[in-house]
Amino acid sequence: MRVLSRNLVHLARSHVSRAAAVTGGVRGQQTAAKEATAPLIANEPTAPKVLTSVPGPATKQHLKELNAIQESGAVSLFVDYERSLGNYMVDADGNTMLDVFTQISSLPLGYNHPDLLNILSDPSNVKVFINRPALGSFPSSTWPEDLRTSLLQVAPKGLQHLCTMACGSCSNENAYKAMYIRYRTKERGDKTDFTQEELDSCMINQAPGCPSYSLLSFQGAFHGRTMGCLATTHSKPIHKIDIPSLDWPIAPFPIYKYPLEEHVRENKEEDRRCLEQTEDLIHKYNSMGKPVAGIVVEPIQSEGGDNHASSEFFQELQQISKRTGAALLIDEVQTGGGPTGKMWCHEHFDLPEAPDVVTFSKKMLTGGYYIKEEFRPPQGYRIYNTWMGDPSKVVMLREVLRVIKRDNLLDNARETGDVLYKGIETLEQKFPQHIDRLRGRGRGTFIAFDGITPAKRDAIIGKLKLQGVHAGGCGEKTVRLRPALIFQPLHAHIFLDKLEAVLASL
User: Fold this and answer.
1) DSSP secondary structure letters along 225-269
2) What pLDDT, in 10s, does the model give residues 268-281?
3) What is the Cα–Cα distance from 47 to 493, expressed in whole angstroms?
4) Does residue 416 carry a catalytic annotation?
5) Is 463 a catalytic site residue?
6) I want to staple 214 with a disulfide (CB 3.0 to 4.6 A). Which of 65, 268, 290, 480 is the partner?
7) Marked catalytic residue, from 59, 164, 359, 362
8) pTM for this prediction
9) Cα–Cα distance between 464 and 97 in angstroms, integer?
10) Candidate list 386, 405, 411, 453, residue with the active-site label
11) Of 91, 331, 356, 390, which is the active-site residue?
12) Active-site annotation holds for 101
């Protein structure tokens, strides 16, 4: 196992450099930055405004009505999407809330962005929304060009083939199938025909038509709630309880000690431990007759608690996939689309070559996956469903990508991420009895910190709502920040002021 230190040290130093200039209280920091920036969205609210309790009486009434129709235990707020604008969400009670969660990281340009509203003034775009095709069989004549001018414009380096889907779970589910198909095709010596025994046995869920392959995933992972994805999801019991699953290998994911710069040796050892167990598990399952066809991993474990690993961890993981013949799938459903300051989080890792598969959704508006050419199934209908995505979302994505480029929103994410990170660093030093383990990948707004206890984390999120800030949690005790790409330093300062008030009140 090669030494796993260089990138851990670099990652630690990047955190130090971001925090080095931070002195004094948050309200006293970078006053010039507050005054120099104007919001990107005209008529956006200038500050949160809370009129009622949160949730308020209207939300409680709507929840009562909805609960009479369907299970609604996960509903926390009802939103007035007509009045929401930019970085501000207005709830059913008229409370205007700075949204740093943005529909679980899925609004790249915030609410009601004017450029997205304008695309509906084109009648041809309206018809795209109305006439949703069964894309696998009857795509529009413009579909190849639509893909070239949207998804392929931001394809990860080395991946120029893709398959569109509707959501993150179905993106992963079908990407798993693509890895299985490729693995079995290699076993056949790249032959693409099937034996009669294979054709007959697959119809009764038996080998050799249905081989006993497995996928390796990681403790703390979240890849979706459909059956195959759920077998690779290990973030919370409530996602999995009562659902039959598969005996697939589950490797440990690094859990680092923070601050990184103070624990380089321990975190290097954590990388080594996890990688060693990963390779051992693959060999174990291969010898059991359950070959590992693929390794499935998030660049940052998001739902599982914003768990990070070093660039060198991912570099070595790719080498393990090469040595064992298991494909490497990087799940960028939550991290893709720019929040880490790059379009794809795995670009931070300096991998020697592209991953075999990269899945996406959320900020990309549509779902799907990018693949190397050899992972394209050799026959039609092997990866197929009625919709296979939605052309109207691709129309919107094309406009989103244009706005990202025009308004330099990746640069904005990096600048704003620095403000957020430095500000929270100061608050962590000021309130160590309440928060710790601040973390973020490189530069960008994909940032998280922990409450000292789960109860304290919940109290922070609840009190932020009363201050007019909508934040989200993940893992056992983590507060995660997932603002839109139009979230600017001026919004970061509002958030930091509100967070400071909350922490001071605990």
Assistant:
1) SSHHHHHT--S-HHHHTT-------EEPPP---SSGGG-HHHHHH
2) 999 999 999 999 99
3) 11
4) no
5) no
6) 290
7) 362
8) 0.93
9) 10
10) 386
11) 331
12) no
